[in-house]
Structures are given as C-alpha cells and as structure tokens.
Write a structure and sequence with these properties.
Blueprint lengths: L1 E4 L5 E9 L4 E8 L8 E7 L5 E7 L5 E4 L6 E5 L6 E5 L6 E4 L14 E8 L4 E12 L2 E12 L5 E4 L8 E6 L6 E5 L2 E6 L4 E7 L11 E7 L4 E6 L14 E6 L5 E5 L5 E7 L4 E6 L4 E6 L5 E6 L3 E7 L5 E7 L18 E6 L8
Antiparallel strand pairs: 1-28, 2-3, 3-4, 4-5, 6-7, 7-8, 8-9, 10-11, 11-12, 12-13, 14-15, 15-16, 16-17, 18-19, 19-20, 20-21, 22-23, 23-24, 24-25, 26-27, 27-28
Length: about 350
C-alpha cells in the first residue's frame, strides 16, 4: 500500500477518478475552513507513486467527479447551493474549458439545494446529475431527489428522469457494459434507459429483504455476472428498526432476488467491483476498514485497516489498484466542516494484483 496527503489540513477530499490517458488519480477537494469563500481544488496524483502532479484551483467547492469513457474530459460537480454548477476540465492541464450556469431547480428554497453524484453517458453524450433540494409545503420543508440530464458540451439542462429517486435516494451508478443507469435509496433500485430518460425497471426492496433496507448509498452492477451490489450506511435508524444493519447486499440482476448480505462494517459508504478479480471492495466509514469480499462465496477475504475514515473509492483502469480517500472524521451531526485540526486528509493506493511486485 502507498499513501499521500493533501497539501493543507483545512482541505477535504471527496470523489476520485482514475484517468487512463494521464495515469493520474484525480480528487475533488474543498476548503472546509473558509466555507464562506467557497473554495475548491482538483488534485492530480500519480497513479503509481501518488506524488502530487497538480493542484488546480476551481471556481467553487468541488465535490462530485466523473469522466467520459475515453478519459478525455473530467466533470466536476460544485455542490454548495451558492454555486450548484458543473465544470468541464481538461485532465492534461487541469484547465476549466466550460462551467454551467447555476442549476437552480427548486425556487422555493435556493439555499437548500445540493448536487451529489454525477455520471457521463457515452451513448447519449449527456451527464446525469443527482440533485437534492428542499421544498416548502404547509409551513414545513421536505426533501426532493431528482436526476437531472445535462448536455456534456453546453452543460445546459435538457430535462430530468421522472421518478429516478421516488423517495430518499443517494446511490447513482452506470453499468459500463450496457450503459444503463441505476439509482437506489430507502427501499428500491431503479434501472434507467439513458436513451429514453425513463425508468424501465424497479426492484422493490420490501420486508422480504434481510436485514431491512434503510439507506442504500453505493451501487455496483455486474451485468455480465447477473448481480447488483449495494452498500448500506444507516445514518438514522428507524424507531421500529429491529433488523437493520450496515453492510453489503447482493441481488440477482434480473429477478431482484436477494443472494446475500455481508456485514462488512459500520458505515458501508462506497463500493467497487472488480470483474478481473471477482471481488467487491467496501469502504466502511465508521469502522475504519476496507473489506475485500469474494465474488463467489460472498465471504470477507480481508479487512484492510484504514485507521481513519475511508470514504470514496476508484479502480485503476486495468483493475490493478484500488484508490481510497481517507477523511479525518465528522461530528455526530455529520458536519463536514468539523474536522481534526491540523490533520491532513489522504489518498491510499492498494495493489490488487497480489503477485505483482508493484506496491
């Protein structure tokens, strides 16, 4: 394993992307201390040594991160309500070539809007952007979850996918083989056809699923192997919860039938699947571990200690390495501005080719 750190302790690391043309791992970063200044960065780490190759100032706080299939462009989601934009970045230079207008969707609560994950669809040339906003009804506010569709060139909103997030939902994933898009949340997994912008199938996760589904936050689809993997991170247990647990679910892709549940650890926040190794990797945020789960037996092969808080992950293009962002902790109220003073966040490289001499 290898590791390296962000340059400043006030910086917070979020989503990662391995870019094959440059051989770099890119990380979206925000300045957590000077929140009012709305500062963001894009870091580029060498994919082998993790040496910092670039630290590029962004116009706003940088949270979500994706790229096109060829790795020609990076797309950064600026999540804070004051920005709420998408930027298109050249990975060779770190230069922004375009930024969208503010993606204002819910006029009733302009300060309560956020962008979550972003994916690029090669088939349609579009970005699919997970959005959360709050609307006011009858003197109270409730959250709405939407999947916006943007043109990848103009960065203009073209529309949205109706009922992509029918209730609470954060998970967003694209199967690289079929190019179909998947969302998941409190009790469902949706499959979306990007060409028609329609939900074509809903897997209802009812009381037959054990442990009960409360909050799916991560997805990975193995369409060739006929499986869907989902990670559960329960932030707020239900009052009547007697059978809810963090960990990894495995579902049959076609029928939706549950195949397994693996209790990987507390706060199973992100996952990645390697077809090359037939392994699932789960970052357990609150347990401080990364689980390696066998794709045949669904047994934990290894628990890799991270010592702090493992968060977002990315696989190398050839699946020879896994990259994990390590955070320095949140308060009990999940306030990302409350962090360990003076402690720099870091990126971890884990070699997956176990016979290879490269660390």
């Amino acid at each position: 394993m290898r590791t390296n750190y962000l340059e400043q302790p006030e910086e917070g690391l979020y989503e990662l992307q391995y870019n094959a043309p440059t051989g770099a791992v890119f990380a979206s970063v925000i300045d957590r201390e000077r929140r009012a200044d709305n500062i963001g960065y894009l870091y580029a780490f060498d994919g082998q040594s993790l040496e910092i190759k670039g630290r590029y100032r962004m116009p706003y706080r940088a949270f979500s991160l994706t790229q096109d299939a060829q790795g020609s462009w990076l797309y950064i989601g600026h999540t804070q309500a004051a920005s709420l934009r998408i930027s298109k970045v050249d990975p060779e230079t770190g230069h922004i070539v375009a930024s969208s207008e503010r993606l204002h969707v819910e006029p009733s609560a302009p300060q309560d809007e956020h962008l979550r994950h972003v994916i690029h669809n090669e088939k349609t040339g579009e970005l699919f952007v997970a959005y959360i906003g709050k609307v006011e009804e009858n003197d109270s506010k409730h959250s709405v979850y939407r999947l916006l569709v943007l043109d990848d060139d103009t960065l203009q909103i073209k529309g949205e996918v109706a009922n992509a997030f029918p209730s609470v939902g954060y998970a967003l994933h694209q199967d690289r083989h079929t190019q179909h898009i998947y969302t998941a949340g409190s009790d469902y997994i949706n499959e979306i056809d990007p060409a028609t912008h329609q939900v074509i199938r809903t897997i209802v996760l009812d009381d037959q699923v054990r442990p009960r589904v409360n909050n799916l936050v991560g997805l990975a689809v193995d369409s060739r192997g006929g499986r869907i993997f989902a990670s559960q991170f329960i932030h707020q247990p239900r009052a009547d919860a007697t059978d809810e647990r963090d960990g990894l679910y495995v579902f049959d892709h076609d029928s939706g039938r549950q195949l397994a549940f693996v209790p990987t650890g507390t706060g199973a926040v992100t996952l990645a699947y390697s077809a090359k190794h037939d392994e699932v990797y789960v970052s357990n945020f609150r347990s401080g571990t990364i689980s390696v789960v066998d794709g045949k037996t669904y047994q934990i092969k290894q628990q890799i200690p991270a010592h702090v808080f493992p968060n977002m992950m990315a696989l190398a293009a050839d699946e020879s390495a896994l990259y994990v962002g390590l955070k320095q902790g949140f308060s009990k109220q999940w306030n990302p501005e409350e962090f360990v003073a003076g402690a720099k966040e870091q990126i971890l490289r884990i070699s997956l080719d176990r016979d290879s001499p490269t660390p």
